[in-house]
Each structure stands twice: as structure tokens, then as C-alpha cells.
Amino acid sequence: MPARSTALAGLARRQAARQLPAAIRPAFTTAATARPSSSSLSRAAPLRAFSSTPRRAGGNVPARADYKKLTAADVEAFKSFLSTPASSLFTTIASPDGSWTPVNEDDLIGYNKDWMDKYVGHSQLLLKPKSTEEVSKIMAYCYKERIAVVPQGGNTGLVGGGTPVYDEVILSTEAMKEVRHFDEVSGILTADGGAILESLSNYLHPKGYMMPLDLGAKGSCHIAGNISTNAGGLRLLRYGSLHGTVLGIEAVLPDEKGTILSVGMPGGRGGALRKDNTGYDLKQLFIGAEGTLGIVTGVSIMTPRLSSAVNVAVLSVPDFKGVQKVFQETRGHLGEILSAFEFWDQEGLELVLHHTGQKTPFEGEPEGGRAFYVLIETSGSNNDHDSEKLGSLLEHLLESEVIADGVLAQDETQVASLWSLRESMPEAAGKLGKVYKYDLSMPVKDMYSLVEEARVRFEEHGLIKDGSIKSVVGYGHIGDGNLHINIVADRWDEKIEKTIEPWIYEATAARSGSISAEHGLGVMKAPYVGYSKSDESIDVMQAIRKLFDPRGILSPYKYLPPVKEPQAAN
Amino acid sequence: MRPTAPSWLKVLVPIKRTVDYAVKIRVGANGVETAGVKHSLNPFCEIAVEEAVRLRERHKKDIENITVVTIGPPKAADVLRTALAMGADSAIHVEVKDGVIVEPLAVARALKAIVGEEKPDIVLMGKQAIDDDASQTGGMLAGMLSWPQANFASKIELDVAGKSVKVAREIDGGLETLSMDLPAVVTTDLRLNEPRYASLPNIMKAKKKPLKKLKPEDLKVDFSPRLETVKVEAPPARKGGAKVESVDEVVAKLKEAGVL
């Protein structure tokens, strides 16, 4: 077939304008393009100005503990562990004998700050080791010298877990991103921890497989980060959580030897196996541990077959009760072909249309000026079969007036642009202002009342009237009982934050929900874990953490509330 | 006989089912692999359908009928249904067997026969199909009918009373505006419009719209191919680059490549 003509380049450009980037890409890095910078860092300084004082949204972070403050001698030591220090070590610390060129604070800002612009740290040292052995040497040294470390993947986290709180050394998995092995018969993929999720998808698709998870940040997030945060995402409904799909983990422990713990990885004792009941399932501890038990450097994961038939419909539903009814009917009619079920509210739609300049996909305005929107995706191996099932569901919903309107994608390009209505929501919110994001899970019937209560609360506090809060948007993986509530404020402000927290956690606990459905705890929710876990559970968790990280050097100040008695200085 | 108001216009929109624009094309031993690959309405044809629907939204009762027609295998009925869901009134499916190649010349001849039957005032079609990129059918059809033609339209203005159409078309030097009397052939280009989604109410209404099935013999047209495809091969794979660790290495590699 002849190469695409220039007319099609125009079509591609036009389509790119109509369909939005599917990934949330932090301003500084993507899988496809790295902005060129003067240094060999792949994340250049964003051009906006920022204050140099640590801006922290949230005042309950513990004071800096007595970890070692880095010296030039430490930098020398780290340098000796790396095979290519020129591209693996970046520090603002000066070299006494010129054996390395220090960088500016600006060059490290992309690693010191999260993409929401909410959490800023002041690390002086960024390490990008190329192999698990290098990570092991680094961790053994940090144990010996009691140097605090924050593991960092794609830095797309939403709870300040991936950035330093003070001057912890940033250990990035960016340079370890190869696919190690793929078994075409079983579909088991083994990769380095720093492999980017979208790259893995692109690797698998031509072979007829796909990653079992998908999220907006896919263009930047690392698989090790996904595992360390037990990322959920858009396909959990169909493929389950990482607790089920991960078969093996290779992690470096923060102990004297920098032990490389390999569980369920191919080639070892007991390789990457679908079924293996031999002892405590250690890998489960690392899934969702947010880098507090060890640094995940390798992963073995089950991948499902890529579906040849994918259909997407977006529906307009008059009220939230209707959304629940749609979910029930969808489950009933579609059964095994349902692969995603997302919802968002009128505020969310308006936010996205405003940010992207798109027109609404529907013919007109909803009745009463507001509606809820549901995205249904089906994935199967037989398009005729799936289209028929989906078609009869949609007809039924329309005729019984459960839904007011809807559109059905007619080609792949439309599938992508309908998905972008949902996937662009976080980015659109970020463009409108500073976003206080909460990720809560609770029974579906109680979900939207929380959003409505939040709006009332902000009204009562005068925050809507004076423009402090610009919009309250509710959306999420309603199929999993997961609400993302985005409170868009015009600035990071403790006053605004105090109106939100801890009220929102109390409101969640009152609904017997979880304060963090999938985003994790990081630094944001570490103090509040008690809202969703009993004291006894927290005590056991602290004990486990102490067992793996006796010197408390991995991701300090995060994940769990500070332990009552101070760490014994060694 | 029903009295026809002189200003009512009939629009005929020929459309084609092609491999989906977003799909990555793979070339096998027998040419482009199409088995099991997602197919959909050719993007330029989609734009033509959208334009026809917009003409009706603009001119209302003056547009008597929008008929879509496709010449293709049984599955091509899908694109007819998409077009009906976008707002076309009726559809004609000239069904050929799966795997049969229908060349632009055969398509033009078939459309000439259909134009003879349906007597449209304007034939609105995509400028080319994204599978063969031939861009021939529109021109051939206009030639066979001896109708005026305007290709690569980026703007269409219909004068119903005057039975003429003004078309702005994109050319290398800029925009050229042509005025022609109806009946005429107009082919669509990218910037003409942005097609709408198929809404559920319209998808359901489309099921009740008439879809006429014809065989090539009914049109008395010779569909036998006149071209022989000698070879189809994929463009050569892009050779990967090499990553370097420092500026010095960049200079060394550039010198090696003879660039510096």
C-alpha cells in the first residue's frame, strides 16, 4: 500500500486536534519525546516560576529526621557503584577535585516536584542506576551510612509519594526499562521496573497481547511504580488488580547487603508461574507498599490477549440513580464482554470541553442543564457478537428512558476521542487551577451524595462565592465503587485545605469507605490511614516495615503515621 | 404522478468500507493483511455524508433525499448503517462476494448506472479511499456523465433556486472557487467539515430506513478487473539509532558517519 499521502498527514493532525493526548503527561516527560535540555537529564525545568521555599500543601509532615546529610565523599562512593556515572548521577553538590560536574537546582526540579505542582522537595542527588546490581550497591551503602532514599518511577503519583520531602536521595528507575522476556504461549511478560506502561503495551500489541492495566498516566508511569502503588485504572473491572496479575517481583532490600530478593521471576528457583503455593506470598507485600519495603527493579506479569473487537459508547443519564441502573443493566446484558465502566458529572464534561475546545458529542444540551455521563467499553473476540449485545443493551436503555441520549463510536478514531473525554479530566482540572484530589471508594449508592455535600459545605464557608474554589468535579471507576473527586481551587492554601480535610475523610468513613481507593497514601494520606484501618492492623504494618527497613531509610515520612518512639540511632 | 417542486434536490453519496484509519497496516505474502482487521467508513466518505446532512440542516425541505450507496462485500452494509445513523435517508448496497476486487473504473461505471436510476442533482463523494489512494472514481464518473466536477472541496455553497453550486477547493497555490450548474460531482477534502458521532436515537431510527440490495448483474456493468497487482511490499524498516552517553561521543559518532 502506498505510503500515506500528505493529505493524510493533515488528517492525522486534525484527528490529533480532535482527539486529545490519551495520557496525562507531566509537563516535562513523555514516553515518545523527551524535551531536549542542556544537561543529559530527560526532564527539563518547566518554564514557570516557582518559589524556592518548600511549599507543602498540608501541614502535618514530620520534621526532618537525623539521616545523614550528603557530602562529596558520599557522591564519590555512589559514583563508584555506577557503570556510567556521567548519565546516571546528577548532584548539586560541588566536586572538590572536578571528578564530576554539578548541576543546578533547576535541573533537578522535574524530579524534586510532583506533576500537580503540590509537593516540592530539595534533594541534592539524583541517581539513575542501569541495573539491579547497581541498585543493590547503592542501597547497601545507604544502609551503612543511614542515608534516606526515595524511589521514583514516572513521578505521576497523586499523593506526594514519589518526590523527596526533604533531601532524600532520589533513586529513579528511569534507566532500567528493558523488556527482559516474553513467553508467547503463556503470555507472561518480564520487564525491568522502569519500563513505561505504554511502551509495554506497544511491545505487546503486535504480538496480540495487552497489559492488564491502563491508566491516564500510561505515557509516563513505570511498571515498578504501578506495582508499588497497586495501580487500579480503567480496566480493573475486567482484568482484576495487580494482586492477581503480578506473578513475580525482583526487589532490592534496604539492608546491609542490599539483598536482591527475587520471587517468582523466570530463571530463578521457581520461575514465573501462574500457580505456586510454596510459602508466604512475599510479592504481595511489595504490591502497594509504595517503595517502603524495597525498590522494585523487575516484574513478571500475566498479560491477557488483546481483544480484536472493542466498542465504546458514551451515554447521557438524567440522574445518579439512573447511573446505577445503567450499571446493573450493563452488567446483566453485557456480562463477560464489559471491559470498562466510567462515569463523570456535568462539571467534569464542561471542564474537558472547555480545556480541549471540543464540542459536546451529543446533539443538544441535557434536560435541566445537567446530566451524568457514562462510558461503556466492551472487549471481545467477535465484533458481530459484541455489537449485537451492546446494540440491544443501548436500545433497551433508550426505550425504557433510563438514558436520555448517547453516542456509539463508529471507528477506532472515535473510540479514542470518546475515551479522551474521560481521560483528559485530570489534565483539564489541572489547567483550571490547583487541584485537591481525593480518591475514595465506597458503596456506589452513597457516592455522589458526597460530591453534593462537598459543594454545599464550600458554599457555606463562602469559598465558592469568593472564587477560592472554582469547581467540584466528580468522576471515576464507578464499576469498582471508586470516586475521584477533584476540588479545583485557585491556589494551594492551608485555609482551603482545612475546609476539606479531615471532613472528607470523615464523610468517607461515615460511608464505610476507603480514603484511598487506588492512589495510595504517600505523604498526603499517611496520617489518615486510621480512617480506613484499625489500630491493630496499623501496628502490624509498622512491624512489617521495621522488619524490611530496620533503619527506616526508604521513603521516610510517608505511607504510615510516624511511629511513636524515635528510631534508634545506629 | 407526484408533482415535483422544481427546487427539490436529491443528493447521492457513494461511500466505501476500508481498513480503519487508526489501524497499523501489515503487509503479508499476499499484500496488505485485511483478514480480522478492523474496517470502517473511509474518512473522506464520512466527510461527504456529514456534508450532505449539513446541507439538509441548512436548506431543510429543499433537500428531498440523501441516498448513500456502496459497492462492496456483505460486511459493507455496516458503513451504510453508519451513514444512515448520521442522517442519510436511504441506502443502496451493490453486493459483491468477499475478496472480489472492485476497481475505480468499475465503481464509476456502476455509479453511472445508479445515477441513471436515482437521478440525483449532486453526487457528493470522498476524494479518495485510504486503501488504494486512487482518487479516480469522482473524476471518471463526472467524465462518463459529462457533468461538471469540483474536487478537494473545502467549502460547498448550494444555490437551490438557481440550481447551481459554488465550491471552494484547495490547490497548491491557495483556494480556488468554482461555480457550476447542477447536476454536478463534488469530491470532499479534509477541511470541509468534522463529522458527527452517530447518536443512539439515530442509530435506532436507521434500522427502519430502506436499504436496497442489488447485484452487479442488475446494473449491467462489467466488474472484471483490468489491473494486475504485480508486487506489494512494506517500506524498508527504519534502522534504529544509537544512544550515546556524552557530548564527546556525539561528536565522535558524527565524525564516524562522515557528517562532521
UniProtKB/TrEMBL annotation, chain A:
Protein name: FAD-binding PCMH-type domain-containing protein
GO terms for MF: D-lactate dehydrogenase (cytochrome) activity; FAD binding
PANTHER family: D-2-HYDROXYGLUTARATE DEHYDROGENASE, MITOCHONDRIAL (PTHR43716)
CC cofactor: FAD
Reactions the enzyme catalyzes: (R)-lactate + 2 Fe(III)-[cytochrome c] = 2 Fe(II)-[cytochrome c] + pyruvate + 2 H(+)
UniProt lineage: Eukaryota, Fungi, Dikarya, Basidiomycota, Pucciniomycotina
Similarity section: Belongs to the FAD-binding oxidoreductase/transferase type 4 family.
Record organism: Leucosporidium creatinivorum
Keyword annotations from UniProtKB, A to Z: FAD, Flavoprotein, Oxidoreductase
Domain FAD-binding PCMH-type stretches: 119-306
UniProtKB/TrEMBL annotation, chain B:
Annotated localization: Mitochondrion matrix
Keyword annotations of the record: Electron transport, Mitochondrion, Transport
Manganese is among the record's keywords: no
Pfam families listed in its UniProt record: ETF (PF01012)
Any one GO MF annotation of this record: electron transfer activity
The keyword Electron transport belongs to this UniProt entry's keyword annotation: yes
Subunit relationships: Heterodimer of an alpha and a beta subunit.
Stated name of the protein: Probable electron transfer flavoprotein subunit beta
Species name: Leucosporidium creatinivorum
